[in-house]
Amino acid sequence: MTKARAALLAVVIAALAPMTVGAAIPRPAPVTPKNRAQLAVGKTPTFKLRSTGQGTVWVQVSKSAKRSRDGVIGSDAVIVQAHKKGKYYVVKPRFFAYPGFWANQKKKWYWQAYRIACGEEPKASDCKVEGPVRSFRLR
User: What is the pLDDT of residues 123-139, one digit of tens each?
Assistant: First the structure.
């Protein structure tokens, strides 16, 4: 291999390295409720997910799937910390029996899990390592 080819190969590898690092970030993976699940109104669902890596794990529920600049949906319904139980992180939000409570409303909701771990995302100020957004409907 000539010196020019070796130099070109080094430049290509250096250019691709940031993309590879970003792709290797372990993101939370939702388990339940399944995407587009139909659940009973009047009780809060149990959220179960897999997550590796450092940091605390949180679940947010929102009436909108729209993400903010840091990649996380709104927390207009609930935000709760999930805790490790066996190989999963699990959380069942507290239920409140009043008509305006989110779990008492027959509608579509979105949920997302994320870890708080600074330094893992490509943008240094973004400390949330977010998983995919899933939906469920309360009937």
Answer: 878 899 999 999 999 99
Spatial distance between the Cα atoms of 96 and 104, rounded to a whole number of angstroms: 9
- Residue 40 and residue 138 in contact, taking contact as beta carbons nearer than 8 Å: yes
The architecture in CATH of the region 26-138 reads Sandwich (2.60)
**To which H or E segment does residue 132 belong?**
strand 128-138
pLDDT of residue 19: 46
Q: Which residue has the higher pLDDT, 96 or 11?
A: 96
Q: What is the rounded end-to-end Cα distance, in angstroms, of the chain?
A: 66
Which helix or strand (DSSP H or E) is residue 49 part of?
Answer: strand 47-50
Supply the DSSP symbol for 67: B
Domain boundaries, the chain: 26-138
List Cβ neighbours of 128 (8 Å cut-off, separation of 6 or more): 70, 71, 72, 114, 115, 116, 121
